[in-house]
Design goal:
Layout (H helix, E strand, L loop, with lengths): L3 E4 L4 H12 L4 E5 L7 H6 L7 E3 L5 E2 L2 H9 L7 H22 L10 H21 L10 H16 L1 H6 L3 H11 L2 H5 L15 E2 L5
Parallel strand pairs: 1-2
Antiparallel strand pairs: 1-3, 2-5, 3-4
Helix pairs in contact: 1-3, 1-6, 4-5, 4-6, 5-8
The protein binds glutathione (GSH).
Length: 209
């Protein structure tokens, strides 16, 4: 049985997982999911219903993006304690503020989205400070933390590009642009048709011609 990855192109959690797999020598079959109508097999192996989900050839199921990263990057990139702290801050604080800024209609109460947008910027300030020390978040070279956090900063930036670009975060702007144009990032972003049972397998990382 091959490894099977249930994924969704724009999902930041799925993007971090795909980047980690693309950096490794692992291969899988990728299945693009429609979140409103998730495949029965995906829900069978992971009833919580979030993407990404990776079913490994030996039957092990990884249903958290950070577990998929750790599996893919084993022996290639290891996060430091401070990387893990920053990733936790990203997942538990920044993402919460980002969602409240991006989707104000999803919440029952009325609120000023700017409160959450500005709270999210304090995390971006932390990233900017790290980027004054080196080109990437933990070092000169691309590391675990960059892969884990980049898709969320991209999602935040895309809500209102003009406003994001007006922030005084020159190193962060440069870091984001550099990664968005990188071969690694662009290689994991091609558009795929939604997977339906019986479709021919699509191998990921995608083969370049
Ligand atoms: N903690 C999970 C979060 C994954 C997640 O929330 N993915 C979103 C898409 S970006 C999702 O599947 N949402 C559907 C839902 O919550 O029902 C991970 O790191 O993999």
């Amino acid at each position: 049985m091959p490894n099977i990855l249930y994924s969704f192109r724009r999902c930041p959690y799925a993007i971090r997982a795909r980047m980690a797999i693309a950096l490794s020598t692992n291969k899988c079959q990728v299945r693009e999911v429609e979140l409103r109508d998730r495949p029965a097999h995906m829900l069978e192996i992971s009833p919580k219903g979030t993407v990404p989900v990776l079913l490994l050839a030996d039957g092990i199921i990884l249903e958290e993006s950070l577990d998929i990263m750790a599996w893919a990057l084993d022996g290639i990139l290891t996060p430091s304690e401070s990387d893990l702290d920053l990733i936790t801050k990203n997942d538990e604080e920044f993402k919460v503020n980002l969602d409240r800024y991006k989707y104000p209609n999803r919440y029952d109460e009325d609120y000023d989205y700017k409160v959450y947008r500005d709270a999210a910027v304090s995390f971006l300030d932390t990233l900017e400070q790290r980027l004054t020390l080196h080109k990437n978040l933990s070092d000169e070279a691309v590391g675990y933390c960059d892969l884990a956090i980049l898709p969320f900063v991209r999602q935040f930036a895309n809500i209102d590009r003009e406003w994001f670009n007006s922030l005084r975060l020159p190193r962060l702007h440069e870091w984001l642009e550099g990664h968005l144009q990188s071969q690694l990032f662009t290689s994991v972003m091609p558009k795929l048709k939604r997977w339906l049972n019986g479709d021919p397998p699509i191998i990921f990382p995608f083969e370049t011609v």
